[in-house]
Amino acid sequence: MNKSLTAFLAISLAAFGVSAKKVHIPTKNTSLVLEATEGQPLKFLYYGNALSDNDVQTLDAAGTFNRDAYPVYGMNPMNEAAFSAVHADGNMTLDMAVTDVSTALGADNSTVTTVTMADKVYPFTISVNYRTYPGEDVIETWAEATNNEKGTVRLTRFMSGYLPVRRSDVHVSQLYGSWANETRVEEAPLPHGVKIIKNKDGARNSHTSHAEVMMSLDGKGRENEGRVIGAALEYGGNYKLMFDTDDTDYHQFFAGINEENSEYNLAKGETFVTPPLALTYSEEGLSGASRNFHRWGRNHRLAHGNDMRKVLLNSWEGVYFDINEEGMQQMMADIADMGGELFVMDDGWFGGKYPRNNDSTSLGDWVVDTNKLPGGINGLIDAADKRGIRFGIWIEPEMTNTVSELYEKHPEYIIKAPKREAVQGRGGTQLVLDLANPKVQDIVFNIVDTLLTKYPRIDYIKWDANAPIMNHGSQYLTADNQSHLYIDYHRGLEAALKRIRAKYPDVTIQACASGGGRANWGILPYFDEFWVSDNTDALQRIYMQWGTSYFFPAVAMGSHISASPNHQTNRIVPLKFRTDVAMSGRLGMEIQPKNMTDEEKEQTRRAITDYKRIRPIVQQGDIYRLLSPYDGKGAASLMYITPDKDSAVYYWWKTEQFVNQQLPRVTMAGLDPDKTYTITELNRVDNKPLPYEGKKFTGRFLMSNGLEMPLSHDVDWHKRNDYASRILLLNAE
Ligand code: GLA
After folding, report:
1. What residue owns the CA closest to ligand 1's atom 12?
2. Rounded distance between C-alpha atoms, residue 502 and residue 522, angstroms
């Protein structure tokens, strides 16, 4: 749900524990300290482990850095700035000084500290905000700029936040990739000069790079020890993360909306609000920073973040566009029979004048194709009801095709440059609707509203977005404001999503965008989960899901068992391995069940039963990554543990196959050293149980020694293959 601030209740500065000019923003285990002096710019003093009041007061004596907490362009123009603007009279400088510090209680028990600065000459203010939640270790920061000048002020940069990071041996882990290969992890020390991570897709933003980074402060990041700062920009549009390593002792980190081709004309009286930047600090390594993001995200950002997700079958890889009633009925029967809880009908179900038989027509014409589905949606939902499962449906509301009734009626609704033919995307005909236009926002809202009004039993929506913005041009925005397109697109999308969530708070919605194009904390308040990638190959998914888990919890990570050979990589992977990988996220299936053997169905039935047992641990537990696939050691391993440390699930996947290879023994992490855990293997395919099956070990032993994983499975000769994986359930007595 949208957790934006409402109901501010001002409390006094003194009551919040601020003395003198220090502004202390504490979380459970961390502190951010600023210095606010009236008439001076706001200064950054400290971000790290929680400080005592005494430490806060004596910080200056430690020789800490003293740099603007939100540098603006103008009076020190050789430094990079978080914000720059051109005043109505053409003056390109800002000179900001603190006028006020206040704290307020916000929605969801949050506390918001706001430092307001005013330009010394112009009636132009910038407030910098910091939001915290009790029990969390995330600080969200954002800026709000208000123009009270006589005319329009042109904003040329508008970062959400800035953080100076002390040089030591800082390594940055970032996510990169491309379609079907999203969220690869790359780690490198920061170079001198500028490192920029950016996106310009326009509509989606996480296929290539990601709007999140980890900074390991003391050399190469370790999973379960060491100081780490994590940063996640909460935005679904074009972004820029920038590290400037200049001639000071600090790396200057900036994150915000990508200002390129997006200069914003701030009208008189208007306030520009940046998206928040979420920061976390952990001394428990990369996994510690991930846990902080996951907990905060589940509790305060992700829609229904504390609820369990259903086990589903999605029709895409099973039938692609070949939707028909009999096929849907059969898939529903099969998933119900295997213990699944939800069936999702993907692309291909709609179109009136133009039936959607492939990807080149019909987007925008969201009427059921009764030639394919004579019983309509209600007929399918009745069948789902009878089988005791729920029903979900695919839509792509932000898009149209040139071959559609919507486009024929309203060519003015698409994004395109004036005087130019529109560049077309998927299927050679796909176009993006102009969400800057309120009428288009209505259309998007109405698509969902009509579906859910007509078919209130729809339980789940897969919301896709399969095109970038390929033409810079809005037919709605004025000539002067064409540069607002990217920003206004996302404002329009958010406005439509807000209306949808206000009316339909309970429906589950997946964010899909040609696979993993919409994994970001900006969009997730309106979505329950995202599709990690159109690539469902289990081996490649280990790498992608590893990267995803840096910032996003398993409850949000759609992870499906698919066919072998895999449709994207053609790799032949045994069902056991495919299942063991899929079970480390939000488990689902992306397969034609009628092509599965009875034995495979039985194996899957057992896996789904086991998954339901471990679902609360996986979807709501704390992650401890143990052995990275990127380290090239031949295996990867991670675990989830309940906060009370009574139960854990341990995953181990072999990532390479060589005869007589030596793999490391993985030591566990995060357990209670003094608790004794009983080991149960899940998804067992071996003829003989593992030697430690049913045995008890202390957390101390498991964390200092660990358990040996056999390199292969003990199965009959004809079932042997080159894969090995294990899932162990650990239960404390
Ligand atoms: C995108 C999605 C897929 C599927 C297709 C349907 O590629 O990522 O999962 O829904 O669209 O056209």
Report:
1. 347
2. 17
